[in-house]
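Thread: Newbie trying to understand structure tokens

Hi all, I'm a second-year student working on a class project, and my supervisor (Dr. K.) asked me to get a predicted structure for one chain before our next meeting. I've only ever worked with sequences, so writing a 3D structure as a token string is new to me. If someone could post the tokens and maybe explain what I'm looking at, I'd be very grateful. Here's the chain:
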Amino acid sequence: MGAPRYLRSDNGAEFVSKALLRWAVDEGLESVLIEPGRPRQNGTNESFNGKFRDECLSMEWFRNRLEAKVLIEDWRRHYNEVRPHSSLNYRTPAEFVAGIQNDLSTEAKVLS
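---
Reply by user tm_fold:
Sure, no problem. This is what the structure looks like when written as tokens:
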């Protein structure tokens, strides 16, 4: 899969960092900014950001960076590996990706 070609961002405070900019440059990503007051330009991103803020960032009081890293990683694992998503037919993102990979390998076998 690899990195996306474009990184869409509203430049919200939680997504401005030197590490993010370095990753984007290293991967050769182009930045596409979402206009202020136009969240529909990237509804998926805005939806995720809202869930992340409501379910993780606003629920925790991080005392240090290590604690933040651990708690955010726990939330990320739960979001991707445990929690079913209605938009994915009530599968987890991990199950959805596994299904796509299985479909692609089956298709490749048929084509070869």
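A couple of things are worth pointing out once you decode it. The chain has two domains: 1-45, 60-112. The two ends are 21 Å apart (CA to CA). Feel free to ask follow-ups in this thread.
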